[in-house]
Amino acid sequence: MTHNWIIKSIFVVAIITIIIISGVQFYQHRHYQLPIVAGPGVTKVTYLSDYCSSLKGTMADTRVFFLEGKEEGGKILVFANTHSNEPAAILSALVFIENALVDKGTVIVIPQFNNSGSRNTKPGDGYPLYFEITTKWGSKKFRMGNRNASPLDQWPDPDVYVHYPDRQLLSFLDVRNTNRTWPGRPDGQLMEKVTYATMELIKKEKVDLAVDVHGAETMFPVTNCIVAPQKSMRIATMTSLTVHAMEGFENHVEPSPEGFRGLSHREIGDYSDALPFLLEAPVPFLDQPTGPKTLDLLLSGKDPFLLSLSKQKKLFVPYDESGWPMEKRVGQHCSVILEIMNQFSRKNPDRGIKISNVPRYADVVKNGVGHYYHDPDEAKKESIIFN
Ligand SMILES: [Zn+2]
After folding, report:
1. What does the pLDDT look like over 5-64, one tens digit per residue?
2. Whole-angstrom Cα distance, residue 320 to residue 303?
3. Which chain residues have CB less than 5 Å from ligand 1, an ion?
4. How many CB atoms sit inside 10 A of residue 386's CB?
5. How far is the CA of 84 from the centre of ligand 1 (A)?
6. How far apart are the CA of 223 and the centre of ligand 1, in A?
7. 3 state SS for 256-280
8. Which of 203, 209, 210 is nearest to 80 (CA)?
9. 8 Å CB contact between 288 and 223
10. Mean pLDDT of the 75-79 span
11. Does residue 1 have a pLDDT over 70?
């Protein structure tokens, strides 16, 4: 063998080894099942494909949790992981599923809305495959997903994404973004089926309030806020003022732009009777000018570069040495969702929703997020749902 061939062979073996090791890791991530402990308030767990049969059997199908009160009332849908790289959303959804007790009305929760996106990753941006939340009984492991659905589930992407039904031209990447494919259609692309199924759920179940839970960069103006169209504006404004006055945190209101199509806070309001809201909490991990994308940055939100940018007034949120810890973000989401329900119930007593045992901002900040998760090893087998 010549010297050249030895070098070439070493390279080939090294590349094959890297492909095998990373391939196994990506496969395990895509197929990791998150155990969710259905709390005492959960009355049934269904699939999103029950509202659109063409979703059945795909990686985009996902679990839907119903928490129905004894007394009839209004209905709220809370969905998280529209973007699976904004983890405070799924963490908040699980706080509701594992703890909420419903006296009146119905709470419907979809914790992994873009289920395919939660099985996708972005190694080029330093995304970890998983993150863990510490609890009293150990730690709970979550998949860290991506903003868009996996190309393994929906491919190829077009050169330009033509939104249905408005025919507005959007970025090709947004064809896999479930916050650009509303209201969707049953025979369209896979992500259009996800949003179509949810529109069907909203109409068939007569949902009054639809809350899409997100997170956004601290350098992006639409962050730490409630996005609402005109029809939801009164409740959004009252919620923002109330949490500020009673609980001391900022969460301003942003109007949903009328001309920008495909967004949940636009299309749900235009195509159904429900009042939509989109919640944003800061995600320093997603900002571009940060240090290494570590798990600590993901959970604590502490970064020296953002701190220096904050001193130059370049951020859209208050930011100091304490960063933006996960418990603050989850606490905000819990309080804002509870307050949206309160405000709606005050004006619509016959469609009121009354729930208890969900912590508010100060409780989550004090106790941590993991305090509200139950040990799957201690739970009854039938109440553990894998998704
Ligand atoms: Zn988002």
Report:
1. 999 999 999 999 999 999 999 999 999 999 999 999 999 999 999 999 999 999 999 999
2. 9
3. 83, 86, 214
4. 10
5. 8
6. 10
7. CCCCCCCCHHHHHHHHCCCEEEEEE
8. 210
9. no
10. 98
11. no
Report the length, in residues, of the chain.
387
Q: How far is the CA of 332 from the centre of ligand 1 (A)?
A: 16
H or E stretch including 223? none
The alpha carbon of 118 and the centre of ligand 1 are apart by a number of angstroms equal to: 13
What are the helix (H) ranges across 172-224? 190-204
Question: Which of 276, 273, 272, 279 is CA-nearest to residue 196?
Answer: 272
Distance CA 1, CA 175 (A): 51
Asked if pLDDT for residue 239 goes beyond 80, the answer is: yes
Output the CA torsion sign for 102, 271, 280, 156.
positive
Calculate the CA 225 to chain-centre distance: 15
Is the predicted pLDDT of residue 263 greater than 90, yes or no?
yes
0.90 surpassed by pTM: yes
Binning pLDDT at 50, 70 and 90, where does residue 270 land? very high
> Can you tell me the distance from the alpha carbon of 209 to that of 75, in angstroms, rounded to the nearest whole number?
7
Cβ within 8 Å of residue 375, ≥6 positions away: 37, 135, 137, 138
| CA 7–ligand 1 middle distance (angstroms) | 46
C-alpha 69 – ligand 1 centre gap (Å): 30
Residue 333, H or E segment: helix 326-347
Question: Looking at residue 123, what is its pLDDT?
Answer: 87
Contact yes or no for 89/80 (Cβ under 8 A): yes
